[in-house]
Design goal:
Elements (H helix, E strand, L loop, with lengths): L1 E10 L2 E11 L4 E5 L6 H8 L7 E6 L2 E2 L3 H11 E5 L10 H12 L2 H8 L2 H7 L15 H13 L5 E5 L7 H16 L3 E6 L2 H4 L4 E6 L2 E5 L5
Parallel strand pairs: 3-8, 3-9, 6-7, 7-8
Antiparallel strand pairs: 1-2, 1-4, 4-5, 9-10
Helix pairs in contact: 3-4, 3-6, 6-7
Length: 222
């Protein structure tokens, strides 16, 4: 699905990512660990086309990505995002926030198809009672469940997540991890940037980012 070849990213004279190679196959659940300031979020932003790389090549489904039009189309049609800060719009209801990707990403024909599945997602993630609530009036766990539903509403094949459990208590964290495992079981490819060992433990492949260099970690059987 994704192949990064010799990716580097610099801000001015500071090189944040150094000669990174990463291959992501469909159906994998990949974790990227690292200390604060190691470049995790920058790498995630490049993977999600929120940030331009400085050097190297990015291939998506075998095609070299060269321009903004390609990036925008792939991001809208193939990717869903789950953030630590939720990135929900306070002036909109839970239902309206979940619906947003449908209006931004899909044409009219496909929009109608996906709208039919919105209530199913809302029910699946336990949001029926709060679907008409503004997001500023719901809990952190409810916000993250709304984010999960939003990430799936366009049936994206790739879910990219930045510290998805960072603002959650233990119970809500476990619920979110179960949701990621279920997504992966249902065929979604998932990349999670985290500093949480519990999150790393659900991965099918593990990486560690240190001083801008990405290294694969050995999988240890339970």
């Amino acid at each position: 699905m994704i192949e990064l070849k010799n990716i580097s990213k610099s801000f001015g004279t500071r090189e944040v990512l150094k000669d990174i190679n990463l291959s992501v196959k469909e159906g994998e659940l990949i974790s990227i660990m690292g200390k604060s300031g190691s470049g995790k979020t920058t790498l995630l932003n490049i993977l999600g086309f929120f940030e331009y790389l400085t050097k190297g090549k990015y291939y998506f489904e075998g095609k070299l990505i060269k321009n903004e039009n390609q990036m925008s189309r792939i991001r809208n049609m193939n990717m869903g995002f789950v953030f630590q800060a939720y990135n929900l719009i306070p002036r909109l209801t839970v239902y309206e926030n979940i619906m947003l990707p449908i209006y931004y990403s899909l044409d009219r024909k496909h929009r109608k198809e996906r709208i039919k599945g919105v209530n199913e997602l809302i029910e699946k993630y336990g949001l029926i009672d709060i679907k008409d609530s503004f997001v500023e009036n719901i809990s952190g766990g409810e916000k993250q469940r709304a984010c999960m539903a939003r990430a799936l509403v366009c049936d994206a094949g790739l879910i990219i997540s930045d510290e998805p459990t960072g603002n959650l208590d233990e119970n809500n964290k476990n619920n979110v991890l179960d949701m990621f495992k279920e997504m992966n079981k249902n065929g979604k490819t998932i990349i999670i940037v985290t500093h949480d060992k519990q999150v790393e433990n659900i991965a099918t492949r593990k990486y560690f980012l240190e001083e801008g260099e990405l290294k694969e970690r050995e999988m240890v059987a339970d």
